[in-house]
Amino acid sequence: MATHAQYAMSDDGMSGIGSGGRYTAANAKKRLVRKIQQDSLKQLALSTQAVLVRAPTNPYYSYHMTITSEYYKQKWIACHRYSEFYRLRKRLLDQLEVHMKMNCAYCKALHGQISKFDFPGRSPLFKKVEVNAQVVERTSGLEDFVVALCQYLSAEGITVHCKNILSIQVMTKDFLQFPLAHEEQHIRAIKSLTYVDPRDVRVDTESCPICLNDWGELDGNQLVLSLCGHFFHEHCINEWYTTRFDCPMCRQIAGI
After folding, report:
1. Domain end marker among 154, 178, 202
2. Can you give the pTM of this predicted structure?
3. Which pLDDT band, with edges at 50, 70 and 90, does 160 fall under?
4. Domains in the chain, number
5. How confident is the model over 214-244, as pLDDT tens digits?
6. Residue 23 burial class via C-beta count within 10 angstroms: exposed 0-12, middle 13-18, buried 19 and up
7. Residues 137, 216: one domain?
8. 81: part of which helix (H) or strand (E)?
9. Which residue, 27, 132, 138, 253, has most beta carbons within 10 Å?
């Protein structure tokens, strides 16, 4: 038996926690890295099927969650039993509780949101007549939980104030089998860029090689120089790195 549901992830995050700070050349790269870590959790579509696994001892249902990332233009499947989702929730809450003891308001807020979420109950399957209805309820409930969790963790600026939440992000992405190798290379590629002021350098092209728009009025936070010596708009090269890492000009690979 299989059940199916479809959701689209919204961009709404946890309110009340802003990114803070002033956008300067010194923190531009850090802000962009945090944006990558957050945006990869936002632009998702989920579709879940409950698949009966007839094990030699006790049959069980495996929940196959197909995740489509609009951000990375990739699709993959994360397969877990209900008990594994339950343990993930417990691990997240336990880690947040440890940090709450250090008076972290952000961990406290996230803990409250996760603990108050209506997670599907633990009543055992195959001991009730309404097995099909229970599986449908779990499928929908687990998907709702993942959607909500990703929304909480992608709130604007949340990792600026608490690095513990960054580790929660990584734990969640690892459980959902995100393309972490791709994301890590994306971040390394961004870190390899140099932010420059056009008044201090001679730009050998009249327009950005990616968007083909004139450089216009730029400051040091918008013009970047790659390791291979080519200039791009910060936004353009970041978008380029979401799907590929070769330089648009010379094809040298970035982030390795």
Report:
1. 178
2. 0.78
3. confident
4. 2
5. 877 555 458 899 999 999 999 999 999 999 9
6. exposed
7. no
8. strand 74-81
9. 138
